[in-house]
Amino acid sequence: MMKHGGLIIGGSLSLIVLVVALLSLIWTPYPFAAQDIPNRFLPSSEAHWLGTDQYGRDVASRLMVGAANSMLVSLVAVGIGAGLGVPLGALAAAKRGWTDDMVMRFSDFAFAFPALLSAIMITAVFGPGAINSMIAIGIFNIPVFARVTRGAALSVWSRDYILAARIAGKGTVRITTDHVLPNIGGLLIVQATIQFALAILAEAGLSYLGLGTQPPNPSWGKMLKDAPTLINYSAGLAVYPALAIMITVLGLNLLGDGLRDLLDPRLRRRL
């Protein structure tokens, strides 16, 4: 058990956040947007587990819905990155030559526009919102997955069993799907977990700047943005969303490290 302590802890934390996010889709203690001005800034109690905010809204309910929003944005963003980056990286490794050069130059170009800068540009054209956050973070993830896939695939292409597959008459596409991708699948899963954690942070940052999830939909980043001016009334308004982000990112990072140790045969032999 101690060998995989990080995996167990990370998986447990991630599972808790996921369960809370899914639960918020069907139930929250109160409607997340319901205002109750006479009962604002209430402390934690049986009625309001984490108290209320400046409009009398239940903080626990807003954190739960915020978890669902963050998970959705991050999941779609990582899906965009992996869905486009993995095929590009596999193509670059399989074709080499000018195809490889073009994919890598595209990656270099995309890296010049981090998620925040991409979101600002997209927002300037289409306006702020969760969808634009997904696109911006997803674009930033494409070159990450492309580079990881290319590097891992190049190593696989040099193996003897790939030569045997060529001699057997298998084409490039068949070899990629039958041999290359299955052998780098573990690495891609680990990378997706890490990128998911980074996407959570990026979404919170964009919402903090007003470029992400828009009111009345709650977001951990937006809750943090409103907290400094209200901290004298209720410190929990800053502490709770910060803890939610910290726990989620910590859990995903531990999960990614644990999966890496579990799926990498070289590391597994050392355990």
Describe what this molecule looks like in 3D.
- The chain is mainly alpha-helical.
- The chain has a single domain, classed as MetI-like (MetI-like fold).
- It has helices spanning 5-24, 59-95, 97-111, 115-126, 130-157, 160-167, 172-208, 220-226, 236-263, 265-270.
- Helix 2 packs parallel to helix 5 (130-157) and helix 3 packs antiparallel against helix 5 (130-157).
Keywords for this entry:
MetI-like fold; 10 helices; 271 residues; mainly alpha; 0% strand
Describe this structure in a few short sentences.
It is built from 10 helices and no strands. It has 271 residues and is mainly alpha-helical.
Order of helices and strands: HHHHHHHHHH
Give me the count of strands: 0
CATH class call: Mainly Alpha
On the 0 to 100 scale, the average pLDDT is 88
Beta-strand proportion: under 5%
Globally, the shape reads: elongated
Largest sheet: none
What is the fold named in CATH at topology level?
MetI-like fold
CATH architecture label name: Orthogonal Bundle
> Helix fraction?
over 70%
User: What is the CATH superfamily?
Assistant: MetI-like
Q: What is the CA–CA distance across the termini?
A: 11 Å
Q: How many helices in DSSP terms?
A: 10
> What is the number of independent domains?
1
Q: What low-confidence regions span 5 or more consecutive residues with pLDDT below 50?
A: none
What structural category do the secondary elements indicate? mainly alpha
What radius of gyration results from the CA coordinates? 22 Å
